[in-house]
């Protein structure tokens, strides 16, 4: 559905986006994550045909967004990070206005407006003035607007920012509905755990460069592949038992680092895979070391985010 190839955007001498290449398959809910200034909005504005890339290409369903902007615009629904709403309009009038812009026939407009308000859970606010809506409601109304022309790809720039937990949960439900409708969704945020919960795949961007792109499972695997093993010895087992365990681990060539946490928890970084881990456990049990828990400590996604976006 979406294909970026070496997409680059410079503002004067400053490179905001540096050779970004990625593919997003049909029907994916794809998260676009990165810290402030990573280049998320820049990428999305290029896709929305509001900004020209300095070099590289972006195609949506085979349509080049630069060479064929008009056709690309038919395929996308864009929800910007900030949006102007029209104060003196009621919610239904707001959607009706945009439906007219998209030349939706008058016979269809009323039904469509009602359907969209229902989708974003704003039916009750049909006759309310737009400026009387809460921030989260305005965002949902804006999402409804981006759906008017039934686009294949939705580009949502931080749709859940500033929302309370309930509104976020509702946004997730709406996104799931969109996926069931067969839409492809690109959604940005700087909160990795939030996106990984609801997306099928993710791209992590930092300083205009790709850090990771792939499925949520692949990201966890990649990150947890480096996560340390946690070995918990029986509570109150005593210093001697811990020393024996450390000595035993030090003998194994694939053990790279041993950290002690608290009195009877060891964290071990290894270079090995499952076979080595089995050997490690066998070795400790055979020496009567009182192991009562042995597992890979899953990396906290917030930590992952700090780690992968930290060094640049
Ligand atoms: N019009 C502009 N002129 C100059 N620099 C710009 C312009 N627009 C964006 N930038 C710079 O490009 C970089 C990327 O900005 P962008 O808005 O794409 O980041 P972002 O990932 O959306 O960040 P945020 O999470 O804060 O929304 C930033 O360093 C920003 O200052
Ligand atoms: Mg942004």
**CATH class designation of the largest domain:** Alpha Beta
SSE run: EEEHEEHEHHHEHEHEEHEHEEHEH
- Mean pLDDT reading: 89
Main sheet: strands, sense, barrel: 6 strands, mixed
Number of domains: 2
What level of helicity do the residues show? 25-40%
Number of strands: 14
Low-confidence region ranges? none
Spatial order of the strands in the main sheet? 6-7-8-3-9-10
What is Rg? 25 Å
Shape: elongated
What is the structural class? alpha/beta
Q: Roughly how many Å apart are the termini?
A: 30 Å
Named at the architecture level, the CATH assignment of the largest domain is: 3-Layer(aba) Sandwich
Question: Could you characterize the architecture of this molecule?
Answer:
With 312 residues, the protein is of the alpha/beta class. The protein folds into two domains: 2-213, Rossmann fold; 228-296, Alpha-Beta Plaits (2-Layer Sandwich). It has eleven helices and 14 strands. It has a six-stranded mixed beta sheet, sandwiched between helices. Strands 2-1-4-5 form a four-stranded antiparallel beta sheet, covered by helices on one side. Strand 9 and strand 10 form a beta hairpin. The two termini are 30 Å apart. The model has no long low-confidence stretch (mean pLDDT 89). The chain binds adenosine-5'-triphosphate (ATP) and magnesium ion. Residues 40-41, 81, 157 line the site of magnesium ion.
